[in-house]
Amino acid sequence: QVQLVESGGGLVQAGGSLRLSCASSGRMFSSYAMGWFRQAPGKEREFVAGISTGGGSTDYAESVKGRFTISRDNAKKVVYLQMNSLKPEDTAVYYCARARRPYSALVRRASEFDIWGQGTQVTVSS
User: Fold this and answer.
1) pLDDT tens profile 21-64
2) Phi and psi of 20, rounded to 5°?
3) Measured distance CA(2)–CA(60) in Å, rounded
4) What is residue 26's predicted lDDT score, i.e. its pLDDT?
5) Closest CA to 110 of 100, 122, 101
6) Average pLDDT for residues 96-113, to the nearest whole number?
7) Fewer CB near the terminus (10 Å): N or C of the chain?
8) Residue pair 97/115 in contact by the 8 Å Cβ criterion
9) What's the Rg (C-alpha) of the chain?
10) Contacts of 119 (CB under 8 A, 6+ apart)
């Protein structure tokens, strides 16, 4: 069974940076698009960033565009989220997820992802 494990969260001051990692235990990691989502207290889970199977295509929520960068290392079976210029409104639990279908186009809806990590807390203080 495929598992995703996030790491790299923590407490950072506004304007700071964090790099999240998501390691996959499954085979065929390179066959699936991957995504990062986040959920703040009292809010719905929202899409943050997505990356294609080979890493050549990426997609970002408007709120993080220009500040966050998603990347992947298929040899290591890891997807990353580099977060710069962090703001207090970025505070949330961050989840990585694997697309439901192999070789799918980039998608944003949570229902298009079927395997999720346990989440890692990111807290940005003002």
Assistant:
1) 999 997 899 999 999 999 999 999 999 999 999 999 999 999 99
2) -90, 145
3) 25
4) 79
5) 100
6) 94
7) N
8) yes
9) 13
10) 6, 39, 93, 94, 95
Q: Which two tokens stand for residue 35?
A: 């995504």
For CA atoms 17, 80, 48, 24, the dihedral sign is: negative
Q: What is the DSSP string of 4-58?
A: EEEE--EEEETT--EEEEEEE-SS-GGGS-EEEEEE-TTS--EEEEEE-SSSS-E
Q: Is the pLDDT of residue 121 over 90?
A: yes
Q: Find the distance separating the first CA and the last CA of the chain, reported in whole Å.
A: 40
Q: With pLDDT > 90 as the criterion, what percentage of the chain qualifies?
A: 95
